[in-house]
Amino acid sequence: xxxxxxxxxxxxxxxxxxxxxxxxxxxxxxxxxxxxxxxxxxxxxxxxxxxxxxxxxxxxxx
Length: 62
What we know:
Blueprint: H1 10-23, H2 38-41
């Protein structure tokens, strides 16, 4: 729920964050797709996709 430094409409952005939070089954289901740590925290669907794609239907690694 932190506003970015450069944003057109802070209210709309925060409303979007609230919508994501409301629609997610849990906080663990809110995935920051731009974060490279996502590729480390979530398992690849198969070994040859390691570092390229992840499974979001499983719990993340600690």
